[in-house]
Amino acid sequence: MRLFGDIAGKRVLDLCAAPGGKTMQLAAAGADVTAIDISAPRLERVRENLTRTGLKASLVEADMLKWSPSEKVDVVLLDAPCTATGTVRRHPDLPWLKTEDDVKALSALQIRMIDRALTFLKPGGVLLYCVCSLQPEEGEAQAKAALARHDGLTRRVVEPDEISGVEGAITRDGDLRTLPSMASAQGGMDGFFAARFVVSAT
After folding, report:
1. What is the spatial distance between Cα 22 and Cα 14, in angstroms, rounded to a whole number?
2. CA-CA distance, 31 to 8, in Å (whole number)?
3. 3-state secondary structure of 145
4. Are the C-beta atoms of 132 and 191 separated by less than 8 Å?
5. Distance set, CA 4 to CA 111, 117, 153 (Å)
6. Cβ atoms of residues 168 and 182 within 8 Å
7. What residues are labeled active site?
8. What are the residue ranges spanned by the domains of the chain?
9. Topology annotation, domain 2-199
């Protein structure tokens, strides 16, 4: 959540929110959070986790591709559905379970989600797009394509002091890319990609 900076008092949407870990971190940082998820049972998990921790967020059961907020917001977190190939360290069977068709289908869904998420933001608002995938089609290529599709959309590069300890995970373009081979002495880490975008204020 350090990639959001100070979000106290800001209106934040957590899309695809279940099971609620990021929702809780956002709420703990003082944000006014609305958590969106298409699955009622999974959204109940978010509710249970909020109750357990004493944190507050508004919960909405909805398909984000068909839903809109009543007002535009300051920040959107889109932890998009993906192939989850970044978790191969913990799930070594993944390379045999995911196919090229899976990558294509999920990449197409991610495009729709990014485009929809951008409509929720105020001018100057921030979108953090992330996936636990190693596939460039879901990460680096997805970020590049979003910038090409949207005039006025800019990348806010990740700074070393925002991710102390894994500074080597910053890509040449300024996005975040972790790999299972990183931090090997500590047991490694999941593969993860995050790109931060800002909507033009004009």
Report:
1. 8
2. 5
3. helix
4. yes
5. 22, 16, 17
6. yes
7. 132
8. 2-199
9. Rossmann fold (3.40.50)
